[in-house]
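User: Hi! I'm a student and our assignment asks us to look at how structure tokens line up with a sequence. Could you show me two examples?

Assistant: Happy to help. In each example below, the sequence comes first and the structure tokens follow. Example one:
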Amino acid sequence: MELIFQNVWFVPLFPFLASILLGIGLFFFPNSIKKFRRLSSFISIMFLNIAMLLSFHFFWQQITGSPIHRYLWSWVLYKNFVLEIGYLLDPLTSIMLVLVTTVAVMVMIYSDSYMFYDEGYIKFFCYLSLFTASMLGLVLSPNLIQVYIFWELVGMCSYLLIGFWFTRPSAANACQKAFVTNRIGDFGLLLGILGFYWITGSFDFQQLSKRFFELLSYNQINLVFATLCALFLFLGPVAKSAQFPLHIWLPDAMEGPTPISALIHAATMVAAGIFLVARMFPLFQMLPFVMSIISWTGAITALLGATIALAQKDLKKGLAYSTMSQLGYMMLALGIGSYKAGLFHLITHAYSKALLFLGSGSVIHSMEPIVGYHPNKSQNMIFMGGLRQYMPITAITFLFGTLSLCGIPPFACFWSKDEILVNSWLHFPILGSIAFFTAGLTAFYMFRIYFLTFEGDFRGHFFDDVKKLSSISIWGSLEFNKEQFKLDKKSTLYPKEANNIMLFPLIILTIPTVFIGFIGILFDENKMNVDSLSYWLTLSINSFNYSNSEKFLEFLFNAIPSVSIAFFGILIAFYLYGPNFSFLKKEKKKLQLKSEIDIVLKSFSNFIYNWSYYRAYIDGFYSSFFIKGLRFLIKIVSFIDRWIIDGIINGIGIFSFFGGESLKYIEGGRISSYLFFIIFCMFLFFLYSYII
């Protein structure tokens, strides 16, 4: 058994080997390997399945009482400086290993069909395997330096995958935007790592917290400097997990293939920031100001993401802002000290959002032959509608993911989100109010997405009639006269259900979307009076002082407010976007008669629409203030460099040149001329002196 634990590094090694094999094949045999497309995906999936089985084995060993395993090797030795690499296996690590590998396997199986006809099919699996290996290496890292190395590898793979279709300008711009934004966070992370090494003399997670606590106990730490280092370190997770104000890259990252959105932007890369904050949680707890910044950053991000998602027309971008909002919930939980609730929501959200993204990919895949392959058409919810009758399995699984994200029992996200809501209210009512209000918005925009996509009448055949489609408001007025659209008789294309290879991951992911939430709930009293997840996390290196878990019935009773708010949001979405039953039509006509109310609602809806369309005006502000301001500053610097600095140097050179040319004619080589010149100058000097 000990031999198996000494070889934990096999988990990231297998997907890394798959990436290396496909990369070598593409480099040396580019034409031959394209004939073995299925074999390439089989290698990637098989190797990742081995890593997944190993992850489940390590997870089972950890939760059944196996001690924490930590293996280190000396990497750099210089005098008293020792830099070690290795791996750390505790319950938190094992949970993340299972999470990453299970979602990655489902995404790879799904991609086998989704990307099969793409020219970069093998390259896609090569990048995907490398990304998975990098994320697994990050999870296993025992110190900050190793985390930083894999952190950068994850960022590099994200850049490659977001810009996978780089010939499309929007995709090329999106991957550059993600890269530059994350560089800001990564620079802060590096400064924070170096700062804490300056304070404690260690990069190791366990030693770092222990030494920091000892120094803090003896008042040997400058709290201002320590707080500054912690905020710099927190800047890395802010960028990686798309927290305000470095969230702007996430919606544009939807330009990548949809399976990438399910893997990177649901369960892995964006979760890396949450994981790092959880790893550094014992240290952050000693700095109350930093914890306050973390909690408020999470709350603002949750609310901002929800408000921007309210009127999105792009299916994937709506889910992207939803991801941003839910990541804000996780950060809020960690900031208020609710360690278990934050990680609990990380787990439940990962499976639910992966299901939603893969479901959106199935929808987009079926819409592309009808409306075209450009994202502005195939991902536009205005051209969808009524897909439930054509894609019933996709619709049901998407509905399950929607119900989970809205916090409806007994789906997974209900248990974790409600715990965050209650804890945030108890910690500080203002934070709790923001969290509860955001929960209502989440229910509204998620069912808005569902109704626009799967309910009503199919609108895909009207995509080329711009004038008539412009009359279809995205704010609920989706009734239109079918007779006013004259369909071409040749137009017989309708969406089709995805094939079995794409449906298999959707069905499998439905299982954790429904049941994974039960790991955080106490159904019957045990000796420790604690739920399974809390017990597992107490065995981790980041053990925390948990309070007794609420009993099942008590938990449900406390969840009544959050569920009520969620149902209220669903009812509003149903009223605006749901099937147009006769009684709803009558109610809408009654409201239309009240002109004052109608004007107020219309002005409010226009404000919300503009807020969502212009992304809360944040992107425009960054573009005007930073990008245009930086370009203007560069022009000024360029002008100074060219005309002042270079002008002085060039002026001296020109003056020397013409001075030399002038003296060239005076110097004739005759001594009599030199004597005459000297005497003449002396005469002028004495004459000047005499006059003065």
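Example two works the same way, sequence first and then tokens:
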Amino acid sequence: MGSEGEKNVEGGIELQGMDDERKEKVMKEDEVFSVERIFENKEVPSWRKQLTVRAFAVSFLLSVMFCFIVMKLNLTTGIIPSLNVSAGLLGFFFVKTWTKLIAKSGMLRQPFTRQENTVIQTCVVASSGIAFSGGFGSYLFGMSKQIAQQSEHRTDGFDYKNPSLGWMIGFLFVVSFLGLFSVVPLRKIMIIDFKLTYPSGTATAHLINSFHTPEGAKLAKKQVRELGKFFSFSFLWGFFQWFFTAVQDECGFAKFPTFGLQAYENKFFFDFSATYVGVGMICPHIINVSVLVGGILSWGIMWPLIENRKGDWFSADLPSTSFRGLQGYKVFIGIAMILGDGLYNFCKVLSRTLAGLFLKLQERKANSQMPVTQHSSPSTESQSYDDQRRSQLFLKDQIPKWFAIGALAFCNAFGCGLTDWSLASTYGKLAIFTIGAWAGASHGGILAGLAACGVMMNIVSTASDLMQDFKTGYLTLASPRSMFVSQVIGTAMGCVISPCVFWIFYNAFPDIGYPTSAYPAPFATVYYNMAKLGVEGFSALPKNCLTLCYVFFAAAILINMIRDSLGKKRSWFIPLPMAMAIPFYLGSYFAIDMCVGSLILYIWQKVNKAKADAFGPAVASGLICGDGMWTLPSSVLALAGVKPPICMKFLSRATNSRVDKFLGS
């Protein structure tokens, strides 16, 4: 993964549950202790027995829940924390509870194994991942009429395509499976020959292995209890807040001017979101601080200064939502930072990938030329007991070669194995500009660019995800066949569940996609305007906007260079450009929530680090899942036309006096 545990994918940033320090600790522990000695007396079930009905039933239920959670995050800020811990923990809890009940009746035929747990994990993450990589908060929703209208672009039939269940499901089925089949023949090379670490897959495997030890099972039970407590609190808190939001865009706790009305107008307030407090507890501290720094730089300094140039840099008569005015600066300067960060990391990861591939090929060549005695070989002699057992079972169940269609996503999958960075969004942006410019404005270049972005991102994203799953399966002795089947079934689930969940949001909240909405889908606007920029060029930008874009594009590259030159230990105080760019369009309210979560975790770690490390992810997951699941009943209520009974609104003293006079007259 990238610096500080960040994985750059799709529209926003997807953040993993473990930072670099914890992942290194996990891998060192695996080197010192023999994990497979603990499980050597337990039979490894065949690949067919790893694929159980109960596993896929639990996977389906968890997939629905996580799709709602990811969709809410995707349509609000685009910051998605890793839900691997939650998926593994809840999968373990549900199946373990089920098997205990069946065992009491004497009808249990097959015990719950870590291999089955891995199948559930793979299926759930593959399914809920479609809610993110499917583009519902970026390229796919960016095709819609409401996004196109906001950019003041002509909206004929070539410029937009409104969402509908039929074409969304069909599109996802076409593009989501290409990446899976492209890297199947490469799994032995990547996992065994090159021994790529795939840090996220390794960390997930360590988690699952720990669940199935006696001590780990006891801890998992306590973690589930904590997750359940905070899930209930978060769900009920969302329900309580709903009563005070009769006019959704103006009322409720989320509109509380924490730092005063002037700060509120500039998007500085705490909106009492349990979701983003939980996200802040999961994300590394540097991510939370970077987002806050970006909000202060943009909404605290830059936008007020540019607003003062109204009438000079842009017309004073333009509405606040016009992209020829202040809104244009917000969006395009943010895009410039995202592109600068993406280009730098693309070059960095590509160079590391090529260098790593060269070294691995050289090592392989050197090993093949070493003299081998009659009784030993260099490969087996250097392998530990764990590696020998894992390699034996990993190669036992072969996946038929005819499943593969080529090595389309090799570069991204290899780079992800070395660095844990997925460059899916960078490939997608390249597709937007190249295909959009090639097609041209008169031939639907904007839609062509966005569609090409979806194809490219899904191919490279699912390929790297599958290799992460293969690594998890390798370390838990799960069969590659069961991993592949689970990934395919999970992807198919996601191709149906995710569009259905988005369709609920789309119909329940008519203002979705607009800046004033509870679901502004900021990256849909960003991706549409990237496509527009690729097709039309810079002519539509406001005055001096292009110059500022160049400055922030270069600044993003420079900041990354400084961070890398200083190293991890000395660069902890330098913010991340990608995270800084997110609040440029949205504001800082969610950054304050995240920093509150970060502060809670920091204090907890100072008071009791062991307990914070053990239960912090569970508490954070409970906060995210509870508030995320409240969106289901709130959407149903909105579709049924049921409105909250109370509007809690905050006014200035002067406005309140005028209201009192009006009511008293």
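Here is something you could point out in your write-up. The radius of gyration is 25 Å.
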